[in-house]
Amino acid sequence: MIALVTGGSRGIGAAIAKQLAEAGHDVVLTYRSGGDTAEATAELCRACGVQALALQADIASEAASEALVSRIRSELGPISILVNNAGVNRDGLMMRMKTEQFSEVIETNLTGAFILSRLVVPDMMKARHGRIINITSVAGIYGNAGQANYSAAKAGLIGLTKSMSRELGSRNITVNAVAPGFIDTDMTAALPEKLRAGALERISLGRFGEPADVAGLVAFLASDAAGYITGQVVEVSGGLSL
Ligand code: NAI
Fold first, then answer.
1. Which pick of 18, 39, 103, 194 has the fewest CB atoms within 10 Å?
2. Ligand 1 binding residues, C-beta < 6 A
């Protein structure tokens, strides 16, 4: 089966791409910038004996997503697994947040996922099989000070997941959301030390997660074993309490 992982060049997306390749899926991973890192991840996937492509595409652009999906369809075939992983944060207190700062995060994290899902669903319907997995966040469940834009986008992704699961279930397409807590990636490396230390105190397992911790759940949700699970939001947060 062919899997598309957005933002699969690094961090959580790269771990997901690798685990899907290990499960025997051909993988297309996209990135916005950083082609070398993306190509290195694709090479790791190929080492699992599957086909893998690293393609540049800004998923905030509808035209770029359309071009991406039609290229994958003509070069590899129809997409069976979509992982909407690409995401950005532009943190700041809500009172001082510029409208563009809010919109940019919504466009990438939420609208981008909606557009790509809409683009891949017709082939999944035809095949009467599909898996859509949206990477949301604990911030979308509980909210987070300084992340009104990000939390709104991630909460929106949960609503999108639940609605799509209801619309697509009769065609054997499952749609689920995975909500990571604090995972060690470039995104969390930028957090101030005080915030990191405060977060650690609230995690039962006493450590930040690894990208592979999230990828394991995504690979499971993409597998046949998860065929009767849809419309769910699963936290991978080490028992974080907020
Ligand atoms: P990261 O910053 O390391 O990687 C993000 C990826 O998204 C990169 O490959 C980047 O190129 C891609 N991307 C960003 N904007 C894009 C755009 N417009 N078009 C195409 N690709 C774009 O982030 P990380 O930590 O690996 O996060 C992955 C996902 O997990 C994100 O959706 C993030 O919100 C979510 N998440 C991460 C958590 C963490 O603690 N690291 C916690 C909860 C959720």
1. 194
2. 6-7, 9-13, 30-32, 57-60, 85-88, 108, 135, 137, 180, 182-183, 185-188
Q: Give the residue from 104, 97, 194 showing the smallest Cα distance to 148.
A: 97
The answer to whether the Cα torsion of 139, 121, 166, 174 is positive or negative is negative
Looking at residue 117, what is its pLDDT?
98
For 184, the token pair is: 């060690």
Q: 88 CA to middle of ligand 1, Å?
A: 6
107-123 tens-digit pLDDT: 999 999 999 999 999 99
Among residues 205, 236, 222, which one has the least CA distance to residue 18?
A: 222
> What's the 240 CA to ligand 1 centre distance in angstroms?
20
**Cα–Cα–Cα angle for 179, 207, 189, nearest 5°?**
75
pLDDT tens profile 218-229: 999 999 999 999
Asked whether the predicted pLDDT for residue 177 surpasses 90, the reply is: yes
CA of 130 to the centre of ligand 1 (A): 23
CA torsion, ordered 215, 217, 219, 220, to nearest 10 deg: 170
Q: From residue 194, how far is each of 56, 182, 239 by CA, in Å? A: 35, 14, 20
What is the Cα–Cα distance from 107 to 167, expressed in whole angstroms? Answer: 23
Helix (H) or strand (E) holding 19: helix 11-22
| Closest-lying ligand 1 atom to the alpha carbon of residue 208 | 40
Q: Is the full-model pTM beyond 0.90? A: yes
